[in-house]
Amino acid sequence: MRIAWEETGSGPPLLLVQGLGYARWSWEPVVPGLAERYRVISFDNRGIGESDKPPGPYTAREMADDALQVLDEAAVGRAHVLGASLGGMIAQELAVAAPARVEKLVLCCTTPGGGATVPMPEVTVRLFAEAGSLPPEVALRRYVENALAPDAPAALVERLYERRLANPPDPVGWPAQAAAGMGFQGVEGAIEAPTLLLTGTEDNVVDPANTDVLAARISGARVERIPGTGHLFFWEQPDAVVRIVTEFLQ
Fold first, then answer.
1. Residue 199 carries which DSSP code?
2. Which of 83, 104, 79, 76 is nearest to 20 (CA)?
3. Per-residue model confidence as pLDDT tens digits over 187-207
4. What span, in angstroms and rounded, lies between the C-alpha atoms of 175 and 114?
5. What is the pLDDT of residue 44?
């Protein structure tokens, strides 16, 4: 499997794992701040960007193996790991499958998987149902708006929309990645790495209550909520995210 990755900065390694339909470019709001203290490694999950796009469905466990491959190729024995949404599910699998490789874990806007998951908010369920009948550009804008807080600045919506237009999801990879998220049943084993759970209070994609479920399952987990932000809170409040993550990792 060819997995495209890049790195910036120096210091303790920090691996970033993105979610459904987003390639490594989508970490751009937080990479500069994190790279001031860390060797930040980001990659395109299988199914998107410059990585291979084999037929699906994928599983979060397979995608965790891809993340391990990136660490191996980067000659990193042990790293901090930050995963968002589907990336948070992948990061959970990584932390259980290879605990010796994970120093600290940051799980953003993600779920515990299986029956413990608090269901997706109705507004997003309706959007998924409607999207197929909309012109592609209209559907994409709706997805962008839905991933941010309802009162997100118009300039931010436009910026993210333009980036999404320039980096469209792959017709094979997107549903294969989506299957990994829908099929995630939770990890089999305890997460032992010190863990930070981050969520936006206005997340319309992953119900913020999932953070509380995860906190109850992961011993000693710390919870931080970023008020007034949506699913892509690291686009809305990048400075706050860099500060919170850096304080936790230090």
1. E
2. 83
3. 999 999 999 999 999 999 999
4. 19
5. 98
